[in-house]
Design a protein that fits this description.
This protein is an all-alpha fold. Helices cover 70% and strands 0% of the residues. The longest helix has 44 residues.
Amino acid sequence: MTTPDEVLVESPEPPASVSLAEAFRYWLIVGCISFGGPAGQIALMHADLVERKRWISERRFLHALNYCMLLPGPEAMQLAVYIGWLMHRTVGGIMAGALFVLPSLLMFIGLSWLYVSFGDLPVVAGILFGIKPAVVAIVLSAAWRMGSRTLKNRWLIGIAVLAFISISVAQLPFPLIIGVAALMGFMGGRVMPDFFQPGGGHPSSKVTFGPALIDDDTPPPAHAAFSRRKLLLTSVIGIAIAVTGMALLYLVLGEKNPLSQMAWFFTKAALLTFGGAYAVLPYVYQGAVATFQWLTPDQMMDGLALGETTPGPLIMIVAFVGFIGGWTKEIFANFSLFGPIALFASGTAGAVVATFFTFLPSFIFILAGGPLVEATRDNIHLTAPLTAISAAVVGVITSLAVFFADQVFHISQPLSQWDSASIAIGLAAAIALIRFKVSAVRVIVACAVAGLVVSYVPWW
């Protein structure tokens, strides 16, 4: 007998076993239609895998999601890798993760080429004029959503405020802020554990949809059993792939080559993405714009706008950064092999290198550490530092929204230089996102139309 808050869908038998080919088709479709950021992507997989296909039960799905939420990196993509690995071993995990990212990578390469080739056209400029304020609103709404879930008490609010001041006023490096937050969480978890419990926010684990292929009581397959030997071997192989890739770039192109710099830079960025892509964007901005000058602040804003309108993880903006960096630095300009397509080849190489080294750590985390972390996910001494990191990330994302607002609205300039049209579009977008919960894609489309209207109205 079920309680009132339970939903039970009767089904006499679990579904038949899923072939690797069937899983391939599914993950390819997900990679092509996974709009809406991590929340939308997780909701899509939940509706498909738990409710309709019943490949995995509700509790096992949430079990995997909780693991992925503890890790740096895009949690929706990691969840796909986890489920693919659980169902079809290592090859299934690699296949699911690759197909989750590959369509977005190909799309970004094409859009990046169109951007550098035709971005100065008035129509394109008008669209981007409207999208940029929408991006400010989207980042602000991300901080609002995360803050409402994370900042449950004055201690976590204090950590968020301290992080905001540290990165926006003191301009401390992002890794240092994350490290201090983790230390505060570790200490807080021991002294006042009730204040550092991880928040909820996931679907109720009481909901059931009938027997699943991987059900609540289905024993873990042999390949999911934890062993220290397997953990060490998988970690060594993953690290060896990363080191070998970097070494080849250094040996063939040299350590000062942008591709070599991208490999190391995006590996570091991948290890700092606690709280999603918005949290690491300040770090990416500092490196890509200020340090290496792969692209300009305006181009970074345009890339984020493209990231909001394409499928796949938002962190795929690194493909845009890599493409523009490769194109700008003309990596293959002196290689006669490429001839007239040297610029396109340079940009494509940058996009591929940035994407590969950004997502490789996620594969290693899942394939190597899944069985271990599952056994310890409820340990407060492990989750408290991550709760504090999540609070700090709210402050970092808010600082990013303020920075982008200054870039688009010019609010640090005298009042006469403020961009009133952009402010009006951004304000409307923020109200639509935060108050009326309109999807980001619809907001971006509406703002793009508004940008075109403003650009072509002579009296504005």
